[in-house]
């Protein structure tokens, strides 16, 4: 089990106590420090490893938005505020989630579980990137029912899980159904271009035509971006200089 280090930022002592109580109930969360102002938290992050920041917005002198503007490298941010109009603003800053006060434990645990999955996905992808040897082929052989079928990576539009099998939608060969499982297939794809954006979809980033808040368009098809994969997708684009 991964231990997720977090800090809380809020100028209301009662709100800090509530978050501390919630955090202590979760085995994989570790509360590193509490802050009643964002400036102190900003200085702390510069020299300490932090995975999640629970951030209030409305604070005197230096607000939560000021904090987001000033961050150099951003941990996962979960906004905790009584004002729902900050939800859209938070999306502009690529925050991971938004909790509306008064915060219920149900909403809290749902949010941190999703972030835990995101962090695990990120670390697994980084491990795979560091260990996979340089690709020496530009194609893959897919296991179909009666044969192995060669498919070029550049011909793949997207891949969809169909339960017990996978459908690989291509530009030139139509849809190919393979009995390979999701894990085995994604491990054979070039990590520099293919990314999982939904529990049922893998896409080649180079094939995207348009990107919306909750989907991407590839060759006229709208592919959903799963809630648990949105932050990973945003970071994927950031590392490549697209945003």
Characterization of the model:
It is a single chain. This protein has helices at residues 13-24, 38-47, 64-70, 86-92, 105-131, 182-187, 230-239, and strands spanning 4-9, 29-35, 52-55, 76-81, 97-100, 139-143, 148-152, 156-161, 166-170, 175-178, 194-198, 201-204, 210-211, 215-218, 221-224. Strands 2-1-3-4-5 form a five-stranded parallel sheet, sandwiched between helices. Strands 10-9-8-12-11 form a five-stranded antiparallel sheet. It has two domains: 4-130, Rossmann fold (3-Layer(aba) Sandwich); 139-239, LytTr DNA-binding domain (OB fold (Dihydrolipoamide Acetyltransferase, E2P), Beta Barrel). The protein starts with a strand and ends with a helix. With 243 residues, the protein is α/β, with parallel strands linked by helices.
Q: What's the arrangement of secondary structure elements?
A:
Elements: E1 4-9, H1 13-24, E2 29-35, H2 38-47, E3 52-55, H3 64-70, E4 76-81, H4 86-92, E5 97-100, H5 105-131, E6 139-143, E7 148-152, E8 156-161, E9 166-170, E10 175-178, H6 182-187, E11 194-198, E12 201-204, E13 210-211, E14 215-218, E15 221-224, H7 230-239
Parallel strand pairs: 1-2, 1-3, 3-4, 4-5
Antiparallel strand pairs: 6-7, 8-9, 8-12, 9-10, 11-12, 13-14, 14-15
What is the total number of structural domains?
2
CATH class of the largest domain, please? Alpha Beta
| Termini separation | 32 Å
Strand order of the largest sheet: 2-1-3-4-5
What's the helical proportion of residues? 25-40%
Which consecutive residue ranges, at least 5 long each, have pLDDT under 50?
126-136
């Amino acid at each position: 089990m991964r231990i997720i280090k977090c800090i809380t930022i809020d100028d209301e002592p009662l709100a800090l106590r509530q978050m501390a109580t919630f955090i202590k109930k979760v085995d994989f969360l570790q509360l590193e420090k509490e802050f009643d102002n964002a400036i102190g938290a900003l200085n702390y992050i510069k020299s300490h490893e932090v995975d999640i920041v629970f951030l209030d917005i409305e604070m005197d002198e230096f607000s939560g938005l000021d904090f987001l503007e000033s961050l150099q490298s951003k941990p996962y941010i979960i906004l905790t505020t009584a004002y729902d109009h900050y939800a859209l603003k938070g999306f502009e800053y690529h925050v991971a989630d938004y909790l509306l006060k008064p915060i219920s434990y149900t909403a809290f645990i749902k949010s941190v579980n999703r972030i835990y999955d995101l962090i695990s996905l990120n670390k697994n992808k980084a491990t795979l990137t560091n260990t996979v040897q340089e690709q020496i082929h530009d194609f893959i052989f897919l296991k179909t029912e009666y044969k192995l079928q060669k498919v070029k990576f550049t011909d793949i539009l997207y891949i969809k899980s169909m339960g017990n099998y996978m459908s690989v939608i291509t530009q030139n060969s139509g849809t190919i159904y393979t009995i390979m499982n999701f894990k085995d297939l994604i491990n054979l794809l070039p990590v520099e271009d293919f990314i999982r954006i939904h529990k049922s979809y893998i896409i080649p980033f180079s094939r995207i035509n348009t990107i919306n808040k909750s989907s991407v368009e590839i060759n006229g098809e709208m592919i959903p971006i799963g809630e648990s994969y949105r932050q990973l997708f945003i970071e994927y684009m950031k590392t490549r200089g697209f945003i």
